[in-house]
Amino acid sequence: MLRIGPLELPTPVVLAPMAGITNVAFRRLCREQGAGLYVCEMITARALVEKHPGTAEMIAFDADETPRSMQLYGVDPVTIGRAVDRIVDEDLADHVDLNFGCPVPKVTRRGGGAALPYKRRLFASIVRAAVTAAGRGSGGRQLPLTVKMRVGIDDDHVTFLDAGRIAAAEGAAAVALHARTAAQRYSGHADWDRIAELRAAVPADVPVLGNGDIFAAADAVAMMEKTGCDGVVVGRGCLGRPWLFGELEAALAGRPIPTPPTLGEVAAVMRRHVELLIAHHGERKGVRDARKHMSWYLHGFAVGSELRRELGMIDGLERLDELLAQLDGDLPFPADADGPRGRQGSPGHVTLPEGWLDDPEDDTVPAGADVMHSGG
């Protein structure tokens, strides 16, 4: 069990927010597989405050989805505070996470994401504003406020220990660490030793969650044993594998891990996913959104390139059914199908605002840093 403020999670597993992935359809699919905390796509604080139309769809939750978890991005304490105020006042979520881990250039060049913890006073102000707003709920209701971050900007600008201590001191209910720098992006290997360092640096009553390179249930068990962290955050490892959450639930409870699905069972999950996307987005957008998931589901299976290509171009459920019928449903799940999925890329220079590294104590909000586009 994992306790985050007033929330009690029977399984210490969190789905990481992923742009274009962790919408209400994917979260429902994952929740059907196993327990955990399932976070929606990253929401821009300014877009939430100004009620941007595109953001409204992204903060949708199923009627039975609990706890409802939302991740916010922002660089201005005032805007972050107002965004959390709206979440509390309109009962939009049960948990708020702050994003200080995004390594995408369009975010870091504005001083946001993984770039922001370098500015310690500004970072503290943002966390403080969010925690204060989260505690203003009527009837004593308080939303737990958590922080997700990276090791630092690069090897020469490591920020996670200071950021973890500051977040805890400002009232964060938990901190999560993706054990890579922003410069690494998603390349190489996550340094789990950093998670252990954070666990030792943060007060024991503040849970520390580990993120990075969890591609199988055994990875989660190994991370928790090696680092002493209180839970895990899973991102790319569940792409095309929502049943990973059932495997994680079993492994962390000490039960036998369920037998991996056959290709026929995977096909049934694929169809379920497309149905949920259509229900959420409408047929045209839902089918288009489903295309990118096809190759992830088929990862490692002996499926011909032409069939893979056609699945990546589906135009509706009827065509999907025709193609799924061509699969050999008896094929067992490949033994070598674990491992990285989705974006990996290569390490590179982190784009920052001009003069960003000059003074870590400068708490000036970067000009033009608040953006309207949610989703990362």
From TrEMBL:
Gene3D superfamilies referenced in this protein's UniProt entry, alphabetically: Aldolase class I (3.20.20.70), Putative flavin oxidoreducatase, domain 2 (1.10.1200.80)
InterPro entries on file: Aldolase_TIM, DUS-like_FMN-bd, DUS_fam, DusB-like, tRNA-dHydroUridine_Synthase_C, tRNA_hU_synthase_CS
Positions of FMN binding: 17-19, 71, 148, 178, 235-236
GO molecular function, one term: flavin adenine dinucleotide binding
Enzyme class per UniProt: oxidoreductase
Domain DUS-like FMN-binding: 15-319
Keywords, in A-Z order: Flavoprotein, FMN, NADP, Nucleotide-binding, Oxidoreductase, RNA-binding, tRNA processing, tRNA-binding
Enzyme Commission number, as recorded: 1.3.1.-
Needed cofactors: FMN
Active site: 102
Stretches for region Disordered: 331-376
PROSITE patterns: UPF0034
Similarity-based family: Belongs to the dus family.
Protein role: Catalyzes the synthesis of 5,6-dihydrouridine (D), a modified base found in the D-loop of most tRNAs, via the reduction of the C5-C6 double bond in target uridines.
Designated name of the protein: tRNA-dihydrouridine synthase
Lineage: Bacteria, Bacillati, Actinomycetota, Actinomycetes, Pseudonocardiales
